[in-house]
Amino acid sequence: MKRSDYPSLLLPDPPRRRFLQGLAAGGVALGLGPWLGSAGAAAQAALAAAGNAVPVLRGTEFDLVIDETPVNYTGKPRMATTINGSIPGPVLHWREGDTVTLRVTNRLKGSTSIHWHGILLPFEMDGVPGISYPGIAPGSTFVYRFKVKQSGTYWYHSHTGFQEQTGMYGSIVIEPAGGEKVRADRDYVVQLSDWTDENPLTVFGHLKKQSDFYNFIEPTAIDFLGDVSQQGLRAALDKRRMWNQMRMSPTDLADISAYTYTYLLNGMTPSGNWTGLFRRGERVRLRFINSGAMSFFDVRIPGLKMTVVEVDGQLVEPVSVD
Ligand SMILES: [Cu+2]
User: Fold this and answer.
1) Is the pLDDT of residue 12 over 90?
2) What is the distance in A from the centroid of ligand 1 to the CA of 157?
């Protein structure tokens, strides 16, 4: 799979698009720049050496540390919110039927939380501040413990402020009690997300003041004349009236576009070209996860048929797609 094939959506203009391909080796590993020598540099060097692999943790006991980590996706150094120093955080491998213990330590200046997305558990373990618990205060550790009652592909993320947008998310892979029913020779998580160099609060502020702030492909007078010549004046006017009455734009596919977003795959920018290796004839399982704060993704691998076998942790009637 080539990173350059993705994403095909919402890229306003070519120069910007090239820029937003990002740094070839962006992310945590190259976030060293101005902070070289700061705490955590050794951990980052280890990540750089690991290439494009997201760290994997297996078993029933997990220690997760939430901290700020310097990153650089576009040439501008920024601070991210990380789990064990990486974006995404580690892949958590669980087994159906096991009881897992997850100790989450907060090294941030403010409160944090981890919510286990799609996981069935007692409400006190759900990790939503203000609903199921007060959150995890700075300097403290919260211990989550619950029995794993399901299998499949899930993810986890902060449920506090905009921490998820700034890097605080990871994937969960749960092996079924009786082993995988659909066998594969290789198994890869493909976690898709979006990164902005802006403060997410600023992004939010822009949208509150102007909902199409990041939309640069609004219909123009020339588009209208094109509609008139194709559909006739009446139909063109009707169409425009319909959108105006809804106070919506026909190009309003997502509120936040590539104007500010760099799209990440397993924490790498498009130029980072995340690669999953396999041999000819092997069957590869890809676990696609949308961890975008605001984006949805049109997933395809040009020239390759894929079979969807599982959705949201549920086995489904296999469906062939591109
Ligand atoms: Cu969620």
Assistant:
1) no
2) 6
